[in-house]
């Protein structure tokens, strides 16, 4: 980067309060059009890989949600979708018979919104698959659920399948926050009963998701959320910032309010005995546990390769990313159940600056990024290429550097999106400076 120190400062200032800069990258799919190629994303057969399976069905369609999902369709459509998924997994396994899995996450959407029979079909395939492949020593599979859809039967099926972590969305327990956003939660006593039932099986960890920065959230509602966490006492908590990139311009966020709410959550969770570094979105009662599944941990911290199955799922290998059909095309959801396969239809072969930007954006969830991984992407040149940026951020106390990590400082976290963006290639993102918001983002 040849940008002068003063240019870096003005660039940073122009992005400081721009909500488009966060952990989402690329900022628009149009930014990667030039890297779109035909063919298949190649994986390195000798390296561990993770699977992610996307179930795009939900019983409620929360208006703040940026994931690909629809209301649960008929049972027939559910079966067809699961059959297509299983077929895609089996085809992939035939291609990579020596595969070693480091993780397996079933997410969505709400996987537990499937009917009992479709859910069992999926979990049978899971068990069948892991009996045929190698697993890393730290392999820790995980599944997403909601309290409304996690029946006793499904808890039992999950436990018997050997899935050791369940992640349940709450977002906020305050009805005046979530109800206007088309979400209902069950009461705290019912949540506690469900968590007790989970703990009575072999499922070792429960994670609860909270959000901050949502319309209607205040310091008082955040305190209510923390009180409920204290009562429920899960092993892990994940906090997500409300991002507006994918949900349109109907919402606006105040970055200062978001920052203050994150600080409240962070301080409250630390007081409750959770461990985390400031700026990190995952919290765990166990010091040796990062608070996520092995898939998310290695994806976020180490940039290990992963393969996504199901509509719109993302896959990544060393040289690029691919997206399955349905990414950026919500209309495809109307065809759910009519496809025999959800294989990728977009493949981006990316230059190393874009690979670095994607890695740093994903690592933003951990409040920083690994220096060795950044160096490896940039052929050992990361520090020399970004010396000016690193010096600027360090001199302004926006980052710290300890050992192998660049960590965003407490003051820097107020502008974490702008800090991450200082490592993005400059050419594509000047249009977003000064909070300009290209109309195509909201089509
Ligand atoms: S927040 Fe969860 S339950 Fe709500 S629409 Fe998104 S995936 Fe479905």
TrEMBL record:
- Segments forming a coiled coil: none
Q: Which GO terms describe its biological process?
A: porphyrin-containing compound biosynthetic process
Provide one Gene Ontology cellular component: cytoplasm
**What InterPro entries does the entry give?**
Coproporphyrinogen-III_oxidase, Elp3/MiaA/NifB-like_rSAM, rSAM, rSAM_horseshoe, rSAM_sf
Enumerate the transmembrane spans: none
Which residue intervals define the domain Radical SAM core in the entry?
Answer: 43-275
**Matching SUPFAM superfamilies:** Radical SAM enzymes
From the UniProt record, which GO molecular function terms apply? 4 iron, 4 sulfur cluster binding; catalytic activity
Q: What is this protein called?
A: Radical SAM protein
Q: Which organism is it from?
A: Duncaniella freteri
């Amino acid at each position: 980067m040849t940008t002068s120190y003063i240019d870096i400062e003005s660039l940073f200032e122009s992005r400081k309060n721009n909500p488009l800069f966060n952990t989402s990258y690329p900022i628009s799919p149009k930014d990667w059009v030039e890297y779109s190629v035909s063919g298949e994303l190649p994986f390195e057969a000798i390296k561990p890989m993770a699977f992610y399976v996307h179930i795009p069905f939900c019983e409620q369609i929360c208006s703040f949600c940026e994931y690909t999902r629809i209301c649960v369709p008929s049972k027939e459509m559910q079966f067809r979708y699961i059959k297509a998924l299983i077929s895609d997994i089996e085809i992939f396994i035939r291609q990579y018979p020596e595969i070693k899995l480091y993780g397996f996450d079933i997410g969505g959407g709400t996987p537990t919104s499937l009917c009992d029979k479709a859910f069992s079909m999926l979990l049978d395939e899971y068990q069948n698959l892991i009996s045929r492949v190698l697993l890393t020593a730290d392999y820790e599979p995980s599944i997403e659920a909601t309290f409304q859809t996690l029946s006793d039967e499904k808890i039992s099926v999950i436990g018997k399948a050997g899935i050791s972590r369940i992640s349940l969305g709450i977002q906020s327990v305050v009805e005046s926050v979530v109800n206007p956003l088309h979400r209902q939660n069950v009461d705290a006593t019912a949540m506690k009963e469900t968590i007790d039932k989970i703990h009575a099986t072999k499922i070792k960890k429960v994670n609860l998701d909270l959000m901050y920065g949502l319309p209607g959230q205040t310091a008082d509602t955040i305190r209510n959320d923390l009180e409920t966490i204290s009562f429920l006492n899960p092993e892990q908590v994940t906090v997500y910032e409300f991002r507006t990139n994918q949900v349109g311009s109907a919402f606006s966020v105040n970055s200062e309010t978001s920052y203050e709410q994150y600080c409240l959550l962070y301080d409250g969770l630390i007081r409750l005995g959770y461990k985390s570094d400031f700026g990190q979105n995952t919290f765990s009662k166990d010091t040796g546990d990062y608070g996520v599944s092995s898939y998310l941990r290695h994806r976020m911290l180490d940039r290990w390769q992963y393969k996504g199955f199901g509509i719109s799922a993302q896959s990544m290998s060393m040289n690029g990313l691919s997206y399955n059909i349905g990414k950026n095309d919500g209309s495809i959801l109307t065809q759910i159940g009519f496809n025999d396969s959800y294989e990728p239809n977009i493949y981006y072969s990316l230059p190393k600056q874009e690979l670095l930007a994607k890695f740093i954006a994903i690592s933003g969830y951990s409040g920083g990024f690994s220096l060795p991984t950044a160096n490896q992407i940039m052929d050992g040149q990361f520090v020399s290429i970004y010396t000016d940026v690193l010096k600027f951020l360090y001199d302004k106390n926006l980052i710290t550097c300890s050992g192998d990590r660049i960590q965003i400082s407490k003051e820097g976290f107020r502008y974490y999106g702008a800090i991450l963006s200082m490592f993005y290639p400059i050419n594509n993102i000047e249009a977003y400076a000064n909070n300009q918001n290209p109309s195509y983002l909201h089509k």
